[in-house]
């Protein structure tokens, strides 16, 4: 199969063609158009700028990728695009282009989960077999997963706040390093002393496999603000301390996951690292040592396949399409798209199993307090209800309005010769003491109410009341 893959989930426009002819995967073309120049003035990715840059670059990059692969649209067997998670503007650009190509050529379309593409990259580069333990670390994600098969992933842990890649990037910004921060910090760290600054290792030694990096970022901020801005040696030392702390956290959590994985998946033989942070040299060396101690092989794709690229999208699409997992052309983009749909279930190692249910309110017992709960076969006592009506017995009178007795305390019978009773309300204009007088056409009527004479002004601000 020859599959065209399009990646536009963040700030790289990438197009690739991957083939599996001869039983072995082969990358026929893999082109990436960086957007560093567009985002560098802002120190980070601006979603609207990213989406417009994808529009500018995608058509030309697709033509160049097909030319490099020596293929035309007619020789494709399918088209794949990253449909999430990611920035929705970029996802729309890439998926709509892929759907248009698929519709025009009559080829199947695969809506690829960007995280699944990272997870399956080791199968493209190293041919690793299922199941395997995966540490997926990037700018937006930090997860430990068991990859059981295509489309089946079991999450063991994830970040509770920030991702490892974000911790690298934000720390670099605090140190005044250029964008993109992660690679710049790693380069500066090679010249520093990581033991000069004591930084925390959040979650280290705790149960479970979850991560946390927000506290580490706060500690870096405090240390960065306390040192001189022009102290190059201090910057290198703090960069090295940050890199070491992040690696320590990732290795600690991965060690717990490796023990759990070895006990429950005896057929699994590999610890795989994927995502942009997996390109970090110090992390690779630490994970390789951990895998050797755990009796696992360590596998990491080449650094060029760790960062976002089109080849991983094309390969994930190929894996899905050869299983018959094509998607309709109205498949939506999904800015949030977890790999494990059961991520909220308490099944990750170290998480507590569901305990006994919290006792709720007891069912009401009609027998009142002190009575035992009614069991099967027990006759429920009859609740007191209304007695059967006796047709011969007089029924109770329905309460209704009392009949007025003219001779009692109510008003007397009206006498047309009697004076009109006084009303309790205000007198209407023109009414006498005993009711309305006959109108005399010669008598002037009451004046119509006109505008009132202006009264004293209401006290304004500052005026005494």
Brief write-up:
The protein is an alpha/beta fold and 465 residues long.
What labels describe this entry?
465 residues, alpha/beta, five-stranded mixed beta sheet, 12 strands, 15% strand
Biggest sheet details: 5 strands, mixed
Kindly, what is the distance between the CA atoms of the first and last residues, rounded to a whole number of angstroms?
A: 91 Å
SS-derived structural category: alpha/beta
| Shape summary | globular
Side-by-side strand order of the widest sheet: 3-2-1-4-5
Q: Helical residue percent?
A: 25-40%
Please compute the radius of gyration using only Cα atoms. Answer: 39 Å
Assembly level: single chain
Beta content comes to 5-15%
What does this structure look like?
This protein is α/β, with parallel strands linked by helices and 465 residues long. Strand 7 and strand 8 form a beta hairpin. Helix 2 runs parallel beside helix 3, helix 4 crosses helix 11 and helix 6 crosses helix 8. The chain is globular, with a radius of gyration of 39 Å. The C terminus is likely disordered.
